[in-house]
Write a structure and sequence with these properties.
By secondary structure, this protein is an alpha/beta fold. The chain has a single domain, classed as P-loop containing nucleotide triphosphate hydrolases (Rossmann fold), CATH 3.40.50.300. 57% of the residues lie in helices and 14% in strands. It has a five-stranded parallel beta sheet with strand order 2-3-1-4-5, sandwiched between helices. The longest helix is centred in the C-terminal third of the chain and has 15 residues, at 135-149. It is globular. Bound molecules: adenosine-5'-diphosphate.
Length: 184
């Protein structure tokens, strides 16, 4: 049973690694960014409310995210394990997740922190070319990460749940390193 949180700045490669590991372990890859982009493209109420924040590189308000995550973690497939990618992103979200997991009688094994230098991140994101991947929005997403999400590194380190890995290495090497972490 594998239950992981992937933490790290935008462009750190969390999504790529989460998908590879989730496929290998046959567990769901739960990306709040993917769920939100799906809601935007389907023009649901959530999508309509989230879109302007995403376009600006701001975080979508916690209240919307918490409801969305509660729904997602209420599905049966999470009984086989999970990888949370892009959530939690604020201390409020992390505290909510603690309570939710307690209610579910589950706990997270490790929080994997992807470490990547800023300039590498900017270059990667510019190369990706998603709608919110313009240089101004990217720089803003990095600021938001530093202010609102980076405090979670200490939050999880204090609970001895944090494992930091060097995200600035080839995709396959990183996958191998991650597999070693979860088997240890
Ligand atoms: P990246 O990691 O490149 O920023 P994501 O796909 O994880 O990309 O997120 C894209 C956008 O979706 C974020 O900039 C933010 O607006 C929104 N978002 C995703 N997850 C969350 C979250 N947990 N809390 C608030 N906003 C979120």
């Amino acid at each position: 049973m594998t239950r992981l949180i992937f933490l790290g700045p935008p462009g750190a490669g969390k999504g790529t690694q989460a998908q590879a590991l989730a496929d290998a372990e046959k567990i769901p890859h739960i990306s709040t960014g993917d769920i939100l982009r799906g809601a935007v493209s389907q023009q649901t109420e959530l999508g309509r409310q989230a879109q302007s924040y995403m376009d600006k590189g701001e975080l979508v308000p916690d209240q919307l995210i918490l409801e969305m995550v509660r729904d997602r973690l209420g599905k049966n497939d999470v009984n086989s394990g999970w990888i949370l990618d892009g959530f939690p992103r604020t201390v409020v979200q992390a505290t909510f997740l603690d309570k939710l997991l307690q209610e579910m009688h589950q706990s997270c094994d490790w929080v994997i922190n992807f470490d990547v230098p800023d300039e590498v991140l900017v270059q990667r994101l510019l190369g990706r070319g998603r709608k919110d991947d313009t240089e101004t929005v990217i720089r803003h997403r990095l600021d938001v990460y530093r202010q609102q999400t980076a405090p979670l590194i200490d939050f999880y380190r204090q609970r001895n749940q944090l494992v930091s890995i060097d995200g600035d290495q080839p995709v396959d090497q990183l996958t191998t390193e991650l597999q070693q972490v979860i088997q240890s």
